[in-house]
Amino acid sequence: MTNPNDPPENVPGGGQPGGEPFGGVPPYGSPQYGAQGGAPQPGYQAGMQAEPASNLVWAILSTIFCCLPLGIVSIVKASSVGKLWAQGDVAGAHKAAEDAKKFAIWAAVVGIVFSILYLILMAAGVFALDLDSTTSTY
C-alpha cells in the first residue's frame, strides 16, 4: 500500500517547486543552504596559525617567587599576546610571547642568584658572630 502524501518517484525534484525534495540535502560539492556561492566562512584563512602561548602562568610565578620588576614586565608582555592576536598582528603576538618567556626566565635566574647569595651571606654572618658570653656588659 502506498501513501498518497509521498512524492512521486518519477517526477524530478520529488514534485516540489525548486527541483529539490522537501527536507532533502544538496548534492555533494554544491553550496549548503544559506551559503553564497561556496565562499569560505568569514574569519577562515587557509593555513591559519594557532595563537602562541602567552606564558602568563610562568610570568606570574616568576613575579611571586623570583624577581618582582622583571616579572611585572613579563606579565605585561604576556597579557598583550591575546590582544595583538585579536587585532591580527601575528608577528607582534609571537614577539610578545617570546618576550614574556624571556623576561620570566630572566626573573627566575635573578631570583635564584639572589637567593643563593642571600644564603651564603647569612651563613657567613652567622659564623662571624662572636658568641663569647664573658664579654657581656650586662
Explain what you see:
The protein is mainly α and 138 residues long. It has a domain at 56-128. Helix content is 49%, strand content 0%. The chain is built from 3 helices and no strands. It has helices at 56-65, 68-86, 90-127. Helix 1 packs antiparallel against helix 2, helix 1 (56-65) packs parallel to helix 3 (90-127) and helix 2 (68-86) runs antiparallel to helix 3 (90-127).
Quick summary:
With 138 residues, the protein is an all-alpha fold. It has helices at 56-65, 68-86, 90-127.
Mean pLDDT: 78
| Tally of alpha and pi helices | 3
| Shape label | elongated
Low-confidence stretches: none
Bin the helical content.
Answer: 40-55%
Q: Biggest sheet, in brief?
A: none
Order of helices and strands: HHH
Terminal residue distance: 119 Å
Structural class by sheet pairing and helices: mainly alpha
* Beta-strand segment tally: 0
Residue fraction in strands: under 5%
Q: What would you report as the Rg, rounded to the nearest angstrom?
A: 35 Å
Search tags:
single chain, 138 residues, mainly alpha, elongated, 3 helices
Secondary structure blueprint with pairings:
Elements: H1 56-65, H2 68-86, H3 90-127
Helix pairs in contact: 1-2, 1-3, 2-3
